[in-house]
Amino acid sequence: MNVKKIQLQNFRNFEMQEFQFESGVNILLGDNAQGKTNVLEALWLFSACKSFRVSDDKPFLRIGEHRAAIYGEYERNGRIYRPVMKFYDDKRREIFLNNVAVRPREIVGQFPAVLFFPDHLSLVKGSPELRRKFLDLALCQTDPSMLPVLNEYNKVHQQRNALLKQYRERIDAKSALDIWDEKIASLSARIAAKRYEFISAMSPFAQRVMDEISGGKERLEIVYRTVCNMPPRDLEDLEDKFFYALKTHRERDILSGHTSTGVHRDDFDLFVNGENAKIYASQGQQRSVVMALKMAEADLLRSATGEFPIMLFDDVFSELDPYRRSYIIERIRGRQVILSCCEDTGDFAEAKIFRIKGGQVE
After folding, report:
1. Range 229-238 average pLDDT
2. Residues in CB range of 84: below 8 A, 6 or more apart
């Protein structure tokens, strides 16, 4: 699969700009705050229907404008696909695929991509939220049916929290809370099972990459951690365990006004040679673990879809030492890569270069 071109209209700092990409390496070159990341963000929106920078559409609109749009053209299995997203300051975004209006669930996974941006370098020692976000975005590309499940969970979680805050004032609070607990337990079971399945499938790829980077000296293990024991006996058993955990923590939740258990609190642990990487890994080992996760994500997507995903790198090469940078360069050879950087390091001799300044290609 390849992205052939993308056109930005009043998107971020671009008034009107088209990028025509090669099937190999494409470099977005320029100083900071010129628009390089905006291009990668637009491409990522077609893959995940979410930004990796903001949760609201308003920042997509160029200052002073009321509408913005991104137009894409992709080739997949010999066919051309033209996705479009339109953003407004007074209503929800609109999504089209080949001139037909579609919902997010119908476009997620259609144009698989792997994104590697600076925040990912904190995956090992960063917050559980960062790891959950990485996991869920990757999961949705291999299984787009999980997107509405995750969205529904977020809504139910918020509604349960709202009820907890009003618990003392509502006569029907106990029965209402029972209903929300059943919904959260059901959704938690589906999400936890899928996350566990995804990590189990990704682990062999990540272990192989870690082995290659370290010359066979370091072994990587990924362990999904939830309130219930994994793997589950079955989905019904897992749902019962989540429901029991919610009932057990109910009084504490009423006092705090927040739901203290559920998949919104889950995490995964990373071990290098049996030691918890969050505690013991050196900076070099952390970089290697993150590279293993991102390369494994790409390999798993290829295995699931039969095609290489598009590789998007947002100014991360400067954060890697020459050895790890060389490893990635060799690993992504023959794939379509779009990367941003402040200066041309000469790592990609035949790359197509877009020099960006002030929202324009020079």
Report:
1. 85
2. 69, 70, 71, 72, 94, 95, 96, 97
